[in-house]
Design goal:
Layout lengths: L40 E3 L13 H13 L6 E5 L6 H13 L7 E6 L3 H15 L9 H14 L4 E8 L2 H4 L11 E7 L12 E4 L5 H14 L10 H7 L4 H14 L3 H8 L6 H4 L13 H5 L3 H7 L5 H9 L14 H8 L14 H13 L4 E2 L8 E2 L2 H9 L3 H18 L8 H20 L10 H12 L3 H19 L4 H16 L3 H18 L5 H16 L3 H18 L5 H16 L3 H19 L4 H16 L3 H19 L4 H16 L3 H19 L4 H16 L3 H19 L4 H17 L7
Parallel strand pairs: 1-3, 2-5, 2-6, 3-4, 4-5
Antiparallel strand pairs: 7-8
């Protein structure tokens, strides 16, 4: 923002317009002023407030609180934030308020602080206007120091705004000091530099608009221009995808107005990765006079960051971060071998060999980028230590050479895979997996083709596995449907990666209760495997095992039993009696025996599997708890209810610790524990658990998932056992109708639901049964 005068005290137009960036100002001879100072004095021109300016009340409260907390030595706030967040607009609103007639502020200065020489010149100029003692007009620096002395001693109220501080070291001698308690310094900067907050100055971090402020800005601007019809319900999503960045919102709304384009139509263009940020937020849309195209504004400090980082690493680090999720990624990624190898590629010795990059150099580069507000590097934010505004990321992508983009995406994929935690894990491990999934999805949206150049990148399967393990079934469904479509198109229907994607998608269908779709995929998988290999190939038996599980879900237990017997016999012969896959086959066969009522056949298999998993995996592994759960079901069917209850309690505690309280497997364990309590007559205990399970399944799986219907049916049974038959009736009726529709009238679950409804009707009698 260039500085120019409001007015001068003596009525003369003395400006610094001839002093440009990089100029050196030494001596300016100005004749001594002899007229009286005409208060108030206004120097420099702050930018006009934006149309539909948002007052940002929370930020103003923080600034005002910082001002009240100041002591009588230095009273200064430094507004620090990235490009386009509205730092200067906020400072300008204070300057305009102070400059109003009747404000009581005698001196208001707006100083462009990017060039320290301009700061000195404007100080010297103002010294003459206020007739500071010692300002003789013969030496600019001497007059500037005289002005600082006047500020420190005067009893008059004043405000000095230092806009866009870029060189804290050069500016250090020229910060106004407040000894009288009557003045205030407000500075803006992109930097997060400790030198800016010394000597009592306080930093206030300026971020983007709050979501409500961004939406209010869009609505106000369009409504004021009689274009409210362009607000078609997509304005909140548009604000979010623009990152609530004031600079981008200003450009976007001008685009909407000039093109008469609805928010939803603009959103479609914005999501088009083939379009550059400059096309979507062009310079002609700078209706608020920011003075820069959005990409240039966002990346203004990039060159300075490159110069300040070790070996010029800032640029490749920034480019790599730009292709990851703006919401953040773990700092551990920057310690990974793929990242360090990639960064070494940018520095070679005299023999043309890559020079290794140290972890310390990478950390320093991250800190430099943070200091210049190009990223946020927050070591306290576990798992999301490194973040970047979405539009800054897109600006970096737009300015990254195409030849580098594929390599950047593959490097990021390699690094994500390298730091992925083993298994779903408890608490933090699950959270990290979800963050890494978000980063993987972001990679596929940027330049997904790079992840399929030679083979399907390992991180794509890893992300999908994590989604399934963490119970993110809808996300997994979308992910594997896209993965299967790409692998089929790129490699063909019989490629190993296509087989793998089809298997995962079928498993996801099973978990979502879409058993018919799962069956189709598993039958394709089995047929293709037999054609490519033979009937007795291990992959064919694996496909049979998956198909058998789906047959069980569909109530075709006899078909499932024959397949599972065949699989177990083959695994014992091919893999051995103690192989982990052999134990999986035993566990599946035991489940089917239980479904057929052959509990004495299921018992030795369940006991064998539990003992094997304790020996191989340990007592607290999730697969061990699954084996306990299967054994508990068998105990319950055999009347060993106390044994079943003890196992169910242990499984629930183990799952809650490992997966978290709200994971689908934890709720399944809760449902099993409710069943154990119910068999023992602990109906009130069962009721509390089953109500919790039903609410959770509606929330996690939806109202029409088979597990949700099972939860309704179980709760109806418990209501009946407690004599609450009118509460049981609508649940039993809904469960029956859903099972008839989803599973058919002959499915065992449907028949059980019919029995529950009939029992409930019997309790109520014809007169009391609700319609």
């Amino acid at each position: 923002m260039s500085a120019g005068p409001y007015a001068t005290a003596a009525g003369r137009d003395i400006t610094n317009s001839a002093i440009g960036t990089g100029a050196t100002v030494t001596n300016i001879n100005i004749a001594p002023l002899t007229v009286r100072v005409s208060w108030p004095v206004r120097v420099g021109t702050p930018p006009a407030c934006a149309s539909a300016f948002q007052p940002r009340l929370a930020l103003r409260a923080a600034i005002d609180e910082g001002r009240r907390a100041g002591d009588d030595v230095v009273l200064a706030q430094v507004l620090s934030g990235g490009g386009g967040v509205g730092k200067s607009q906020l400072a300008a609103s204070y300057a305009h308020g102070a400059a109003r007639v009747g404000s009581g502020v005698d001196l208001v200065m707006w100083v462009s602080a990017a060039d320290v020489q301009q700061v000195i010149a404007l100080y010297a100029h103002t010294a003459r206007l206020v007739q500071a003692p010692g300002a003789l007009g013969r030496d600019v620096e001497a007059d500037a120091r005289a002005f600082l002395g006047w500020l420190a001693a005067t009893s008059r109220e004043w405000l000095v705004v230092l806009d866009d501080v870029t060189d804290p070291a050069a500016l250090a001698p020229w910060w106004p000091a407040v000894h009288s308690g009557t003045g205030w310094v407000l500075a803006t900067t992109r930097l997060k530099d400790s030198r800016l907050t010394g000597q009592g100055r306080r930093r206030v971090d300026i971020d983007v608009y709050a979501s409500a402020e961004a939406v209010a800005y869009l609505e106000h601007r369009l409504t004021r221009d009689a274009l409210a019809y362009l607000l078609d319900g997509s304005q909140e999503q548009l604000a979010l995808e623009l990152g609530c960045l004031p600079l981008a919102l200003g450009h976007a709304v001008a685009y909407l107005i000039n093109r008469q384009m609805a928010c939803s139509d603009y959103l479609k263009l914005l999501r088009d990765r083939e379009r550059s940020l400059e096309e979507m937020l062009p310079s002609w849309a700078d209706a608020e006079n920011y003075g820069r195209q959005v990409t240039a504004a966002l990346l203004l400090s990039r060159a300075a960051a490159e110069a300040a980082s070790p070996r010029g690493l800032a640029l490749p680090v920034l480019q790599l971060a730009a292709f990851l999720d703006p919401g953040g990624h773990p700092a551990a990624l920057w310690d990974s071998y793929p990242v360090l190898s990639y960064l070494a590629w940018f520095d070679v010795d005299e023999h043309g060999l890559s020079v290794p990059v140290s972890r310390d150099e990478v950390q320093e580069s991250l800190q430099v980028l943070h200091r210049y507000a190009l990223i946020t590097y927050d070591p306290q934010n576990t798992g999301q230590e490194v973040r970047m505004h979405a539009l800054t990321a897109r600006a970096v992508q737009d300015t990254t050479p195409h030849v580098l983009r594929s390599r950047l995406v593959r490097t990021a994929g390699d690094a994500l895979h390298a730091i992925w935690p083993d298994g779903p894990g408890p608490g933090p491990g699950r959270e990290i997996s979800e963050i890494l999934c978000a980063n993987t999805i972001t990679l596929t949206r940027h330049n997904g083709r790079a992840l399929w150049e030679e083979e399907t990148h390992k991180v794509l399967f890893q992300a999908g596995e994590s989604m399934l393990s963490n119970g993110l079934l809808q996300s997994a469904l979308t992910h594997f449907e896209e993965l299967l479509a790409v692998t089929e198109e790129k490699y063909g229907a019989e490629h190993a990666d296509t087989f793998r994607a089809r298997t995962y998608l079928a498993s996801t269908y099973n978990l979502l209760g879409r058993y018919d779709q799962a069956q189709v995929l598993y039958e394709q998988l089995l047929a293709n495997t037999i054609r490519l290999h033979d009937e007795d190939h291990p992959k064919a038996h694996t496909a049979r095992a998956f198909l058998a599980a789906t047959c069980s879900h569909l109530g075709r237990y006899d078909e499932a039993l024959q397949l599972e017997k065949q699989v177990l016999a083959a695994y014992i012969r091919i893999l051995g009696d103690d192989h982990v896959d052999t134990d999986w086959a035993r566990a599946n066969l035991a489940v089917t025996y239980n479904q057929l009522g052959r509990h004495t056949d299921a018992l030795p298999l369940c006991e064998h599997v539990l003992a094997a998993r304790i020996r191989v995996l340990g007592s607290d592994h999730p697969d061990t708890h699954l084996a306990r759960s299967n054994l508990a079901a068998t105990y319950g069917s055999l009347g060993r209810d106390d044994d079943a209850l003890a196992l169910c309690e242990r499984v629930l505690a183990g799952y809650a610790h490992f997966y978290g309280e709200d994971h689908p497997d934890t709720h399944l364990a809760r449902a099993n524990l409710a069943g154990a309590h119910s068999r023992l007559g602990h109906h009130h205990h069962a009721l509390l658990l089953e109500e919790q399970v039903l609410a959770a399944r509606i929330h996690l799986l939806g109202d029409d998932h088979p597990d949700t219907h099972r939860a309704r049916a179980n709760l109806a049974v418990t209501y009946n056992q407690l004599g609450r038959h009118r509460d049981a009736f609508p649940l039993a009726k809904q469960a029956l109708a859903s099972r008839v529709r989803l599973l058919g009238e002959g499915h065992p679950h449907t028949i059980r639901s019919l029995a529950v409804l009939a029992t409930t009707r019997g309790f109520l009698g014809p007169a009391d049964a609700p319609e």
